[in-house]
Structures are given as C-alpha cells and as structure tokens.
Design goal:
By secondary structure, this protein is of the alpha+beta class. Among the domains are: 52 residues, Ribosomal Protein S4 Delta 41, Chain A, domain 1; 86 residues, RNA-binding S4 domain (Structural Genomics Hypothetical 15.5 Kd Protein In mrcA-pckA Intergenic Region, Chain A). Helix content is 42%, strand content 8%. It contains ten helices and five strands, in the order αααααααβββαββαα. The protein has a five-stranded antiparallel beta sheet with strand order 2-1-3-5-4, covered by helices on one side. The longest helix is centred in the first third of the chain and has 18 residues. The radius of gyration is 18 Å and the shape is globular. 28% of the residues are buried.
Length: 222
C-alpha cells in the first residue's frame, strides 16, 4: 500500500516542507527525487534560508552549530531519526580501535539499509518513499519478504520486488523507473529479472556526501 496525498494542496505543502529543509541547511539534499533535478528546485530559485530576513547575512556558526548542521544534513539525506543516527555513530565509535576509517565504516553501515538500497536501485524516487514501500512489504531479500526499512543488507544479498507488488503503483512500470537511472558501482541490477544485488560496501569517497562526517563523531562524543 502506498500513501496517496489527498489533493494538490497536500502535495504543495509536503514539497514546501522538504524544500525548506534544503534551503535552511544550505545544501541540496535531493529529498524530492526528480523535482530536485529540475529547474523547479527551490535551491535554484531561492538559494538562501527561508524567512523574511533570510537574505541578510547571518553571523558565523559556532563549532557546535556546525556540528548540528552537519548532523541534520546526514539525517535528512538518509531519512534517519535522531535515535537511529546516534546509534549508528556510537556503534562505529565503540569499534574505533578495530576500524581503519570510521567515516567509511559509518557510510557502509547506513548505505546497507534496505530502504537505502531500494532507493539506490531506482525503485523509489526518494529514501522517504523507499522506506514506506519497504514497510508496506513490497520487497524481498533472497526470496523472503522483509518489511523493516533498517534491515541490514549483506554482500551478496539479492533484493527484488514481491510478485504481488509488481502491478501496484509506483512499481508496476519498472522499466520506466530504471530506464535512465545510473546505478552505483557497489550494486548490480538484472533488468530481465528485475532484481538488484549488493556486491560491496561503499566507502565515503564512493558516496560523496555533502557532510563533514568527522563532525558527527565529535558531536555525539560530547
């Protein structure tokens, strides 16, 4: 089941909310899928924070303020809650002595989420939509239904659409969904079978996040 907005006004309200997040953080976070790639993107039209006084120059952020901003970027980029973000960072930080690169480890963990993989495969236009589709039981991992967005995909796992979901919106036209989509190098996609495979965990350099990842560990270590 896919959540349908009641009318155009609801669509505009949702769009405005997400666009304001990007404008407030000063970074295009691609929260609205295709719209973010078009001339309609608010970051193209109004590349300044929302509000009546937004165009006025603001004072420099404190170190703590910078940490908060980077944390918000990361949370919004991956559609994570505060508790989820904190858990991922703390889990990696606890294993710091056994990890060569904590930034790579953090990115690898979060990129392994099922909802993120569904988005990366082109099955959804945004991570928020991917999370809803997963929670509504539209996907399988290695032939078994998984409806937990945070489920951690392992190398070699195969992700596919459930047979009963292939005729439902927005998954019924898979060819159109994935036609012009550029697949990340850590994933494989079999067009004939309509299934993706997780071939390796990406590192921070692969993903090129608009975030200073080191500040996340500094923030949660306070």
């Amino acid at each position: 089941m896919v959540v349908v907005l009641k009318n155009q006004e609801d669509c505009n309200n949702m769009e405005t909310k997400n666009c304001k997040i990007c404008r407030r953080l000063g970074e295009k976070l691609f929260l609205k899928g295709e719209r973010c790639m078009s001339a309609k993107c608010a970051m193209i039209k109004r590349a300044y924070p929302p509000g009546q006084k937004a165009k006025k120059r603001r004072g420099a952020l404190s170190e703590y303020g910078k940490e908060l901003r980077e944390k918000q970027k990361m949370k919004k980029w991956y559609n994570l809650s505060e508790s989820q973000m904190k858990k991922y960072v703390n889990d990696v930080a606890e294993k710091r002595s056994k990890i060569d690169n904590v930034a790579d480890a953090l990115v690898g963990r979060i990129e392994s989420r099922l909802d993120n993989i569904v988005f990366r495969l082109g099955f959804a236009k945004s991570r928020a939509q991917a999370s809803k589709l997963v929670s509504h039981g539209h996907f399988m991992v290695n032939g078994r239904k998984v409806d937990i967005p945070s489920y951690e995909i392992k190398i070699g796992d195969v992700i596919s659409i459930r047979p009963g979901s292939k005729k439902k919106e927005p998954l019924k036209d898979l060819e159109t969904l994935t036609k012009n989509y550029k697949l990340p190098k850590w994933l494989d996609f079999n067009k004939e079978l309509g299934e993706g495979k997780f071939v390796k965990k990406p590192i921070a350099e692969d993903v090129q996040l608009p975030v200073e990842i080191a500040t996340l560990f500094e923030h949660y270590s306070r």
